Write the structure tokens for this entry.
Amino acid sequence: MAEAGRDIRVVVMGAGMAGILSGIKLLAAGITNCAIYEKADRVGGTWRENTYPGLTCDVPSHAYTYSFDPNPDWSHMLPPGAEIQEYFERTVKKYGVDRLVRFNQEIVSCEYRSGRWHLRTKQGTEDQADVVIAATGVLHHPNYPPIDGLDTFRGACFHSARWDHRVPLDGRRIGVIGTGSTGVQIISALAVRAGRLYHFQRTAQWIMPVENPAFTEEQKAAFRADPDLLHYMQNQPDYLANVERFNNALVDANSEGITEIENICRANLENSVRDPVLREQLRPTYRAACKRLIYSPDYYQAIQHPNAELVTDGIERVEPAGVRMKTGRLIELDVLALATGFNAGMFMRPMNVVGRNGVQLNDVWADRPKAYMAVAIPDFPNFFMLNGPNGPVGNFSLIDIAEQQLHYVWTFIEKLRAGECREIAPTHAAMQAFERDRIEAARKTVFGSGCTSWYLDAEGVPATWPWTRTRFCEEMKAPRLEAYELVA
Ligand code: NAP
């Protein structure tokens, strides 16, 4: 670690997974002049906001864990959402990060003036910082579908990320719109509870089978007793090899890896769904993993439950009594859940972010959100993003991605702290070259192979990291300093 030469103030936006991680690292490095601003009254980010029935992370629990804080007590191979939330709340206390968090403070303005970031919250608090870490997440602005009559529905209607737990579900007529990871998990949880369950599908999904066994008490005791075993669980070679293979496949829509994924998913469909009509309705017509691949141990069973029905006719409108299909059929409902995803291109916005010389983030991102190496933006000095635009996304742990990004950002924080410079931002030339190469590569990835998804920007270009995971890990080991302007 560099010699501390300057007392820098660091402000972190958001107390979700990446914001908590930042707080832990700041305190560990002795940077106590810092604060984490959180708009809600609890930490946890996406795991605080999503509480829908069936909420589970489809990444193995021991891999979906901070590398430095293994958890022997995960109940299942795939962790339930509520356990992840508990893990983060526990971690915040364990590392003393709770004292950094300013709850119920939503940053609405962040402007770079006279060499510092000036921040203001909706609640009227003002602050200044030398460094800002934006850890505001990706999937937190619910997408409410523009379906006619949605507001006329007489029953209970809510987005999956705003689940209303006061509404009874058992024995009721429930509709779920959306067949992404969320919709599929809700259907799996509610098939046995609903009186009648309707899954409104606009596009069929590829479903990768997965097992989700519970860890036994003996296994958990062994994890507790043996740190090496726990470390092994976090870094299981089979899992890591799979992630590697999967990610190598994503970069080329015509790769053998994608065909291999399709074969497994297709066999799952053929072997699991008995009714040939239903089977065809559930058969996707685009490349597997073009949309985020769904891992589910039980969706096909759930949708074949006698209470459940897949509805593919197309929604005409919502009426007070239920959903009217394009065929004229009215499906009467008590509850309508909107598992319709998120507006992923927002990132920290609608916050007003203004960089050097009055440059507005909204203008810089007018065509698409972009960031050099997915972390930094020219004209926005000392402003770094975790899980920001163009980062890796897919079926792996975003905790690992955020840890690697923070490691990369840390080089800059040390330089600022050591007084080597006062401002660090990527050059325009580096940003342009990166974005040109990124877009060219992104079009060739499976995400750009002809489906719609939240991975695509407004022009239909995948907004993701388009290269291999290995390349990402290499880049994150240390910044290429020639791509940055360091101002003394
Ligand atoms: P999503 O993947 O964006 O899916 C949204 C669904 O809503 C799609 O099926 C979409 O249909 C449908 N939809 C949207 N607007 C509609 C409309 N107007 N009419 C009818 N259908 C409409 O959203 P999500 O399922 O919430 O998942 C978002 C992301 O969250 C995932 O990709 C994943 O990254 C993350 N997630 C992860 C886990 C996990 O286990 N790790 C679990 C849940 C979510 P089309 O496909 O036809 O557009």
Observations:
- The radius of gyration is 23 Å.
